[in-house]
Amino acid sequence: MSAQGPPTPPIWLLPEPPERRWGLGRAEIVRAAVALADAGGADALTMRAVAKELGSSTPMSLYRYVHSKDGLVDLMLDVAGAEVPTPERPGDDWRGELTRVALDSWAMMKRHPWFAQLVHTRPPAGPQSNRRQEFVLATFDKRGQELPAALGYQRLLDGYIVGQALQRAEEQKMLQRNELSSLEDVQQLARGWFGDGEGDVGPYPLLGRFMRGFLTEGADGPAPPDEDAQFTLGLECLLDGIAARL
Questions:
Q1: Span 159-183, mean pLDDT?
Q2: Which of 107, 108, 84, 102 is CA-nearest to residue 139?
Q3: C-alpha–C-alpha distance, residues 128 and 130, integer Å
Q4: Could you tell me if 117 and 166 are in contact, meaning their C-beta atoms sit under 8 angstroms apart?
Q5: With 122 labelled, which of 2, 19, 185, 201 sits at a CA distance of 20 to 30 A?
Q6: What is the DSSP letter of 19?
Q7: What is the model's pLDDT at position 225?
């Protein structure tokens, strides 16, 4: 996150913030930053914008509490991560428990699309990240997996969840940037490029069939794919593969 030099340390390794002054505190700063990023995305997150959101005259007053923008991002990621309930220790239904954590993580990242855009910009050293990672590792440890294997499975799960959320966030940014607010808007744009989908599709009949279906979705064609169902399908395939190796 730093413009120059090496990354700053995780905020939990830095001194605690001073006592609150003039009603300003770390919790209020993080809450304002999360609201700002929820509304405008990761690109909207600047110290100046957060200061303005709080009514502070200068962003310098924020550095007393969060040290840097990196520190603010650390805290935001941790606050969002706290929205994902995680059992204290694994039970007997390892697959059901990991499914629940993954689905709750997916729901959180849909509420906070910036999370997937920022999570890999900072070291995963926050309390909530540590809590979740420890639970996943303990789940595989209980299944008799050595730590390197457990770490590999954890990274596969995290990669899938964050990857899907990042793709969704980028697609949402593209739609907003091009002022495409509905399925009908996208269909209209596609018709301008490809016509009604009834023409010659050349050597790609399956893609042609897909395009015809897409152009009639919401009318007499198939319903658009449910993103939650698609996420769950991919998660089940991933867990099937892991289960086969345990």
A1: 91
A2: 102
A3: 5
A4: yes
A5: 19
A6: P
A7: 66
Residues 43-64: pLDDT tens digits?
999 999 999 999 866 788 899 8
Q: Write the DSSP assignment of 88-118 as a string of letters.
A: SS--S-HHHHHHHHHHHHHHHHHH-THHHHH
Res. 6: pLDDT tops 80? no
Which residues, in sequence order, are bridge partners of residue 24?
21
Residue in 20, 113, 37 with CA at minimum distance from that of residue 72: 37
Residue 40 to residue 113: CA distance in whole angstroms: 10
- Whole-angstrom Cα distance, residue 136 to residue 155? 10
Q: Please tell me the chain's helix, strand, coil percentages from 3-state DSSP, rounded to the nearest 5.
A: 65, 0, 35
pTM beyond 0.85: the answer is yes
Q: Any long-range contacts for 59-65 (C-beta under 8 Å, 24+ apart)? A: 61/24, 62/29, 64/17, 64/18, 65/17, 65/18, 65/24, 65/25, 65/26, 65/29
Query: How many other CB atoms are found less than 10 A from the CB of residue 217?
Result: 16
- pLDDT(68) > 50: yes
> Rounded CA gap, 66 and 16, in Å?
9
Work out the number of other CB atoms within 10 angstroms of the CB of residue 184: 12
Handedness of CA 109, 114, 115, 120 (dihedral sign): positive
Are 112 and 34 in contact by the 8 Å Cβ rule? The answer is yes
Backbone angles phi, psi at 210, to 5 degrees: -60, -45
